[in-house]
Amino acid sequence: MSGFYPDHQLPLLPVPDLSNQVERTTEIIGRGGYGTVYKGKWVGTATTTTTPATIAIKTIDLVPLRDEAQLKRRFKQITRELSLWCKIQHKNILPLLGIARINDDANIPAFVCPWMENGNAREFRSRNPHFPPLLILYDIINGLQYLHTFEPEIVHGDIKAVNVLINNRCEACLCDFGLSRFLTDNTLWKTTATHAGGTARWMSPELMSGDASIPTKESDVYAYAMTCYEILSGDVPFKSISNDMVILYKVTKGQRPDRTESFHSDFIWDIITRCWEQEPNDRPSTEEVLELIRPKVDSLVESLSCRIIRRSPSPQPPAVVQQPPPPSPPPPGPQPQMRGVKLTTSDDKLVLFYVKALYDYKATIPEEFDFKVGDIIGVTATPEDGWWSGELVDVTRRHKGRNVFPSNYVCLV
């Protein structure tokens, strides 16, 4: 396949070339659009404390193309996705680490990004039923709102649960920008709804009927509603219908998936129904949805956190510690927050993440608890004064009412 794109060169882009630092394994994570995603790994001394231990590598499928025009369209798709991805940076967008030329044709790079061990949003929800789904829905609309307010504005064009990955902090990240476009660039899109991108179950009625020839911010909001339905119900929209033409007919006639018993919240169902309105102008913007959900998320996070006494800065670690000496502890203050997966504490607080003790600690007031080097603690709140709340994983050593400890005595597990 060498020389498949001999007359096409990628533009210079501000992304690292990791060709000699990464290696593709044979394990396929998924397929979609025009690419295949493999699990990858760093080679040699490439990995550092700031790079993820495992990576994902998206390669371009070089299927035979009919003519030069089709070849140019494929190359333009690749260039578009890469140029988009290297410009956007947001906590709810899957980051691009770089490119790697590992295909037979050196002109066609693979995309390198962090490996998301928690999988996509629907898989994550099925494995972690106690995790509040509202946090995932909030992250999705937060990432989508970032794209819609980017300069120039970006439409994703393929929002669905498989394109929402969950990182190790349990945050949702949008991925797969193969259908995305800048709103100022209409040249990359065909003019019929059947080629407008997306998947029928998540596609808005105006794209299906041909009233809109390209995805819009409004069609993204519609797809967001279907994605919310998918995550909360655990099934794709219109699960019982296998024929896309039947789905097209139902959607263009105003029919939507039925509410099931998994939708306990009228609040969330109301947002979903507003976002999948038949007329694009009747749907809320991403900013409006964000403003509706944000107070609920703030209230949820507050209810999951413990109340603790705010005091003076946490104590300094002891000068003499057990051998071998542990690494230097992190300074007190804000630390990376990993949102929780399950309820494990004695008072049913949500564990945000787990830490390991670097030093022995002896409680000085009734609210604190003792721990030893190597103890694992489930953290339930992380105030910025350096005093965190949590409990020992070892239930035999817990003391009721004692849940405060100094954050500079521990490190992330």
From TrEMBL:
SUPFAM superfamilies: Protein kinase-like (PK-like), SH3-domain. Its EC number is 2.7.11.25. Residues 350-413 form the SH3 domain. Residues 23-297 form the Protein kinase domain. InterPro entries: Kinase-like_dom_sf (IPR011009), Prot_kinase_dom (IPR000719), Protein_kinase_ATP_BS (IPR017441), Ser-Thr/Tyr_kinase_cat_dom (IPR001245), Ser/Thr_kinase_AS (IPR008271), Ser/Thr_Kinases-Pseudokinases (IPR051681), SH3-like_dom_sf (IPR036028), SH3_domain (IPR001452). It catalyses: L-threonyl-[protein] + ATP = O-phospho-L-threonyl-[protein] + ADP + H(+); L-seryl-[protein] + ATP = O-phospho-L-seryl-[protein] + ADP + H(+). GO terms for molecular function: ATP binding; MAP kinase kinase kinase activity. Pfam families: PK_Tyr_Ser-Thr (PF07714), SH3_1 (PF00018). Gene3D superfamilies: SH3 Domains, Transferase(Phosphotransferase) domain 1. Signal peptide: none annotated. Belongs to the protein kinase superfamily. STE Ser/Thr protein kinase family. MAP kinase kinase kinase subfamily. This is mitogen-activated protein kinase kinase kinase. The lineage of its organism: Eukaryota, Fungi, Dikarya, Basidiomycota, Agaricomycotina.
